[in-house]
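Input for the complex:
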Amino acid sequence: EVQLVESGGGLVQPGGSLRLSCSTSGFTFSNFEMNWVRQAPGKGPEWVSNISGSGSSVDYADSVKGRFTISRDNAKNSLYLQMNTLRAEDTAVYYCARSGEYYGSGSFHKAFDTWGQGTMVTVSS
Amino acid sequence: DIHMTQSPSSLSASVGDRVTITCRASQSINKYLNWYQKKPGKAPKFLIYGASSLRSGVPLRFSGSGSGTDFTLTISSLQPEDFATYYCQQSYSSSFTFGPGTKVDIK
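Predicted:
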């Protein structure tokens, strides 16, 4: 069974740092692009960052670029998100999610096919 | 960035009802549209990709349609386990933006 388990969330003051982890099992981790997605209270989800299976390619949402760093350790089947200079607007549940490619309607489509349960990050003084 | 909207924001329905949720993109996204289901305290569940292709294992009462900017998710006969919030997501651009969600609750 594919499983993703996030950890590392908590309460942090504005300007502070936090490191999230996502431990995975049940699939060949290095074969899959991985993502961080967050959901603020009462809002829709927001894609934050992704990293290729090898770790050689990363991308970020403009809202976190320069403050957050995504990384992975394929030997440990784990994904990470280093969050620096945190702001109140970063308060959200953070999910790790696996990217899958699916063929339909004549082309390949990327989707977040497996998600963890999430870890809460609260940025407040 | 591509902006996604959904309507209605919430709806009340009974078991057995036919339910339709609309999603609109701010620009054409062809058929690069996914749907997810979210229940409180649970991980989001991926339902539909390519606007209309059902993920393996998803019940056939779920269906999706649309292309360009306008899309719909239909549940043909609502079941007790379908009460949840549904989100659309575009995969046309790498910002992977989601809609604000449609909450389906019990009438």
